[in-house]
Design a protein that fits this description.
The complex is a heterodimer of chains A (287) and B (571). With 287 residues, chain A is an alpha+beta fold. Chain A has helices at 13-36, 41-66, 83-93, 103-121, 135-140; strands at residues 72-75, 150-151, 168-173, 184-188, 206-210, 222-224, 229-231, 238-240, 246-249, 261-263, 269-271. Classes of the chains: A alpha+beta (287), B alpha+beta (571). The complex binds protoporphyrin IX containing FE (HEM) and FE2/S2 (inorganic) cluster (FES).
Chain lengths: 287, 571
């Protein structure tokens, strides 16, 4: 039996392949040793990379130099198959006793399967929240409401004097600090600089707004002092605090919802109601 | 020995030899661009392997956990179990960080490889009949790959991933009528819900990977069934595939590629830090990182969100918020267009024939132009996702960058698309083989639109065999079996049939399928082996070596003669 003869290994090729595989083995051993000595991410990575690169180079030389490359042809039967073949399949499928021909039974079967399929969709509803609140309602309800005190990030209730002029203080509702839609910020501004009165009112220039960007809900964390602008780090919407947190640049289109506040008998800040609008991104039924 | 016995044992039970013989001889075209799909495949292999390791340590839960571990700055803080377990993986599980980072890098390269693969399929027209179905499978896999990338990115519950998830949730919420309900269904509550991480986890490690593996199998099965396409060339027709065989050539080369992919991934995973969640800190609804950039393959969406103007629609007391257009509409249109392209193109060109020979981008200027336009558009969007960083680097206001990009995203794609059409036409009409060979006259000529007769040249039926003199099929007995080869003497081409046939008839039938209408001749014995690059190189080297040593010997001889024994010695 004769085969297309493989060229005898050209000088040096075998050696290079063996060397590559040895390097690979050394890499693998290096990895094992590094791991055994306590592990070190960079060395582990380098050793594994060397191990695989050695394999790759060895195999690549082998594949290029010791076996025939190119020069073969395979026929393509082409599509479609010969008509006789197609006719024979069609004949089997449409034989007199073929299930495909019993239209009435098929219709009934189809009905049963459709019913099953639809019934199978019902359990999907279990994915909805277990407390059954309607999603739109959930969006409107936040932990804020009349009498809820304002806490700082450490959970301490705040007095008006705790908000220094010129800086933004993140505030949370007492009893709901973890809620995703709760974060707000308080900032003290000079009332005479208001170009538009805050919709939720102010307490000697102290205003509170939702921290969530009305574009896509990121916390609007960057305060550009002096300008009274607040910048969203996600897509750079900026809101003008002197103009009732109106968006002035970037992709946001709606104001930040405000929070009406007052000082209670003990001098602590508390909300007199919820946000003036649902906080965060817009949605279909947003009022 | 053992292999032999094993093979025989299997054969006795499964009759594998006939299948194996054909499979081992399967021919793959030799062109680098056919490796791109394989890179995607091997990245998927790496993803699955590293992912299984991570799964054993990751705790998909948003329950509170007090972090204790080697990362001192967070010692004693309360975070979610998901974040705490990611920290443990990164700092306290041996080789954990290596595997985590390698997994992340593999995801980035996986999507990149899929994308480049798609681009090659597109520009070469490999999606045409009969491969439309595989194009559809491919686009679905691309979507699944993006989905899996995103769910994986969101699971560790760090600050950056939390921001990304929040943005996606807002985009889904922007869908008219059903948005809020979809979010509620997906998260089991409002963002951030307790169900969120467990559900992301199941999606990321089970649902999407299972679907991906199933579709990859379908994809590969279809390729085996339909065989590869190939670029036009000597001896290549619509009825054959010319290249190297699966065994031994491609098995070695493909394994080498697998090892290359793993080498690169582990090198990146070990040396290049990625997603350092300890620097971002745990998710907190009131905190944000700045700058905040997503992984590259969602950057086009992020860029679109940044560029789209603050336009909202109010409809009878209802709101369609701004993210709906760059988020949902753009994404939807993109994938619909991808799904529809093979059918759109067929409808426009009226070309319903099956194609096994690929186009070069120049053969189809309009398709090339559309592709370049789309690529430019998405490239500008990706750049736009870094507008804040660009502004910081250039020290210009971010809104100036934004405005420039808003213009560029509309104008640049049209310019590059038009340029691509022009260059493709010029290349096609001139003698130039490369862009660099084009002359000014070629470009000027390309400005006039294609003539009707020109439009079809790429799809012209091949010349019938009798008009191609010099070609023949040679058949010869090889022991008990038969072989054949295609020979085109004037072109200096000889291509061997990929496998032996048990009878002369079968050999002749294969040859007739591969080269219809080419005359067959019987030759007595095996012709000299096809010119082989190794052999040719060897012969060249041998000749050079002999020549060089002869020359050296001659020179030495002369020197000796001239200088005698007292001549200068080489230092
Ligand atoms: C999960 C991701 C994917 C994997 C693992 C994968 C893998 C492969 C492999 C190994 C090949 C054969 C080699 C080659 O031609 O490059 C191939 C061919 C092909 N792929 Fe993919 N692919 C993926 C995604 C896609 C996508 C996104 C598309 C298009 C939308 C696509 C369309 C095709 C087509 C039409 C072929 C046949 C090409 C030909 O024969 O010339 N694939 N794929
Ligand atoms: S989330 Fe604030 S700009 Fe997009």
């Amino acid at each position: 039996m004769r085969r297309p003869r493989v060229a005898p290994a050209p000088p040096g090729v075998n050696g290079r392949i063996i060397l590559s595989f040895l390097v690979s083995a050394a890499g693998a051993i290096g990895f094992a040793v590094t791991y055994g000595l306590g592990g070190q991410t960079q060395w582990e990575g380098v050793c594994l990379a060397v191990a695989f690169a050695g394999l790759a180079i060895g195999l690549a030389i082998w594949g290029r130099r010791l076996v025939p490359v190119g020069g073969y042809v395979e026929e393509h039967e082409g599509f479609p198959p010969p008509p006789e073949e197609q006719a024979m399949v069609a004949a089997v499928l449409t034989a007199p006793d073929s299930p495909v021909r019993r239209r009435g039974l098929l219709a009934a079967l189809g009905l049963a399967l459709t019913a099953l399929g639809v019934a199978a969709l019902f359990p999907l509803r279990s994915l909805l929240p277990s407390d059954r609140t309607r999603p739109v309602r959930a969006r409107e309800v936040t932990p804020w409401g009349p009498g809820v005190r304002l806490l700082n990030a450490d959970g301490r209730p705040l007095r008006p004097g705790d908000i220094p002029a010129g800086s933004v203080v993140t505030v949370f509702p007492e009893g709901g600090a973890d809620a995703g839609d709760a974060p707000a910020f308080a900032v003290r501004l000079r009332p005479e600089r208001f170009t538009r009165p805050p919709s939720a009112g102010h307490l000697d220039g102290l205003v509170v707004y939702s921290l969530l960007c009305t574009h896509a809900g990121c916390p609007v964390r960057l305060y550009l002092k002096g300008t009274g602008r607040l910048l969203c780090p996600c897509h750079q919407s900026s809101f003008d605090l002197f103009a009732d947190a109106q968006p002035v640049a970037g992709p946001a289109a709606r104001r930040l919802p405000g929070l009406p506040i007052e000082a209670d008998a003990d001098g602590y800040l508390r909300a007199t109601g919820g946000f003036t609008a649902p906080p965060g991104a817009g949605y279909w039924s947003r009022p | 020995m053992i292999m032999d016995r094993l093979a025989r044992a299997l054969d006795d039970r499964l009759r594998l030899s006939p299948l194996t013989r054909r499979a081992l001889a399967k021919v793959f075209p030799d062109h680098w661009s056919f490796m791109l799909g394989e890179i995607a495949l091997y990245s998927l292999v790496a993803l699955v392997l590293t992912g299984v390791f991570l799964t054993l340590f990751f705790d998909p839960s948003s329950a509170d956990r007090v972090y204790h571990g080697s990362y001192a700055p967070l010692e004693g803080t309360t975070t979610s179990a998901a974040y705490a377990s990611t920290m443990r993986l990164s700092w306290d599980v041996r080789a954990g960080l290596l595997i985590r980072q390698t997994h992340h890098w593999a995801a980035l390269i996986f999507v990149a490889a899929i994308l480049v693969h798609l681009v090659r399929i597109f520009f070469t027209g490999a999606f045409r009949k009969p491969r439309e179905a595989n194009w559809l499978v491919g686009v679905t896999m691309l979507m699944l790959a993006l989905a899996n990338g995103f769910t994986g990115y969101s699971m560790p519950d760090d600050l950056l991933s939390g921001l990304g998830l929040r943005i996606i949730v807002s985009v889904v919420e922007s869908i008219p009528v059903v948005g809020s309900r979809l979010v509620s269904l997906g998260l089991g509550g409002e963002f951030p819900s307790d169900e969120m991480i467990p559900r992301l986890f199941v999606t990321h490690v089970l649902l999407v990977p299972a679907a991906l593996v199933a579709l990859v199998s379908v994809h590969l099965a279809m390729i085996v069934r339909q065989k590869h396409t190939q670029f036009p060339g000597p001896g290549r027709t619509e009825h054959n595939v010319v290249g190297s065989r699966l065994y031994p050539s491609y098995s070695l080369r493909s394994l080498a590629l697998l090892a290359w992919v793993l080498a690169v991934l582990f090198a990146l995973g070990g040396l290049v830090q990625i997603n350092p969640v300890w620097l971002y800190g745990p998710f907190d609804p009131a905190q944000a990182t700045s700058p905040a950039q997503p992984d590259w393959y969602v950057a086009w969406g992020d860029g679109a969100l940044r560029l789209f103007p603050p336009w909202e629609i109010r409809l009878a007391g209802h709101l369609v918020p701004a993210p709906f257009f760059p988020g949902v509409v753009l994404g939807g249109v993109t994938f619909l267009a991808l799904y529809a392209w093979p059918f759109l193109e067929r409808w426009c060109t009226g070309d319903r024939r099956a194609h096994q020979l690929l186009d070069r981008p120049r053969d189809h200027p309009i398709r090339t132009g559309v592709g370049v336009t789309a690529l430019t558009f998405f490239a500008v969007l990706v750049v736009a996702a870094g507008d804040d960083i660009i502004a910081r680097l250039l020290r210009v206001p971010v809104y100036d960058v934004l405005n420039v990009l808003r213009v560029m995203v509309l104008v640049l794609p049209l310019l590059t698309g038009a340029l691509a059409v022009l260059l493709a036409r010029a290349l096609r009409r001139s003698e130039a083989t490369h862009l660099g060979d084009l002359t000014r006259a070629d470009l000027r000529a390309a400005r006039r639109p294609a003539r009707a007769d020109e439009r079809t040249t790429a799809d012209e039926p091949e010349l019938p065999a009798p008009d191609r003199p010099g070609e023949r099929i040679e058949l010869w007995p090889d022991g008990e079996q038969w072989r054949w080869r295609y020979r085109n003497e004037p072109a200096g081409v000889a291509i061997l049939g990929n496998r032996k046939a048990p009878t002369e008839r079968e050999a002749a039938d294969s040859a007739r399928l591969a080269y219809p209408g080419v005359d067959h001749v019987m030759v007595p014995g095996p012709p000299p082996p096809p010119p082989h690059p190794v052999r040719a190189a060897l012969r060249r080297w041998a000749t050079t070596a002999i020549g060089a040593s002869l020359l050296a010997a001659a020179l030495r001889h002369r020197r000796r003669r001239r200088w005698g024994r007292n001549g200068p010695r080489p230092k």
